[in-house]
Specification:
Number of strands: 8
CATH topology: TIM Barrel
Strand order of the largest sheet: 6-5-4-3-2-1-8-7
Distance between the termini: 12 Å
Radius of gyration: 18 Å
Order of helices and strands: HEHEHHEHHEHEHEEHEH
Shape: globular
Strand content: 5-15%
Oligomer: single chain
Structural class: alpha/beta
CATH class: Alpha Beta
Number of helices: 10
Largest sheet: 8 strands, parallel
CATH superfamily: Protein of unknown function UPF0759
């Protein structure tokens, strides 16, 4: 991907992986173009394990899979994303899902997510929480208990969290305590000071945004150490390719 680059630019590019949140083009072409993907289907409705295994087997050596944890762990059934479940959840069971609650239902959703990660050979599982998951004591305690239990089963798979609306200091302190990677959109929140930088690029101002050359140059400056850049805007494939070219210069 960056084989034509030379000198310091090549070293910088080699530490930065670039891809999209979801296959933004035909799978075979995606594997030729990028070296990382964040799988989205596992958030809405996890695919069959056989499907995920085929994806892994089709990928070239060194390709990195990450995935979003199933929404049943993080989101309440009032979320519109639940419409994509194959089997709707009965209304009387709604209180048992989401927000990392200590319920059998949430833990079963984690087991499904973990099996998906293992089938993919994924390097990281991302937990994305809504703005309604606010920084209050019950949520913090549920997050602590869940992550502590989950980390005992993950082996080499890293766990990451993308909070919404949390004070940066509190979110970073919890991530440090729990061994989580704090995921950010670097155009909205500062990156973590050390460790892997996992950037989810949602578009400046919204999903329809196409990144300008100046914004991509700014992004390059934020790629320090090991950085994974996952574009998640309407023009994600084009913007990711433009960013690859910028890294290689």
């Amino acid at each position: 991907m960056t084989g034509d680059a030379a000198g310091p630019a090549a070293a910088h590019a080699a530490r930065t992986r670039v891809g999209c949140c979801g296959f933004a083009m035909a799978q075979a072409r995606y594997y030729r173009q990028f070296d990382i993907i964040e799988v989205q289907q596992t958030f809405y409705q996890p695919p069959r394990l056989e499907t995920l295994t085929r994806w892994r087997e089709a990928a070239p050596p060194g390709f990195v899979f990450t995935l979003k944890a199933w929404q049943l762990i993080t989101h309440p059934p009032s979320s519109p994303t639940y419409r994509r479940l194959r089997r709707p959840i009965p209304a009387d069971r709604h209180p048992l899902y989401g927000a990392f609650q200590p319920t059998a239902e949430v833990w079963a959703a984690w087991q499904t997510t973990l099996h998906c990660a293992q089938a993919l050979g994924a390097r990281l599982v991302l937990f994305q929480t809504q703005a309604s998951f606010i920084p209050q004591a019950p949520n913090i305690e549920h997050l602590r208990a869940f992550i502590t239990g989950a980390r005992s089963e993950t082996g080499d798979i890293r766990l990451a969290w993308e909070p919404r609306g949390w004070p940066v200091g509190l979110a970073q302190d919890l991530c440090d305590e729990l061994g989580l990677i704090r995921v950010v959109d670097p155009f909205r929140d500062p990156p973590p000071p050390t460790g892997l930088r996992y950037f989810r690029l949602h578009g400046v101002g919204g999903y329809g945004h196409q990144y300008t050359d100046a914004e991509l140059e700014r992004l390059r400056g934020l790629c320090q150490g090991e950085t994974w850049c996952l574009f998640n805007n309407r023009s994600m494939a084009a913007d990711a390719q433009r960013f690859q070219r910028l890294l290689a210069t």
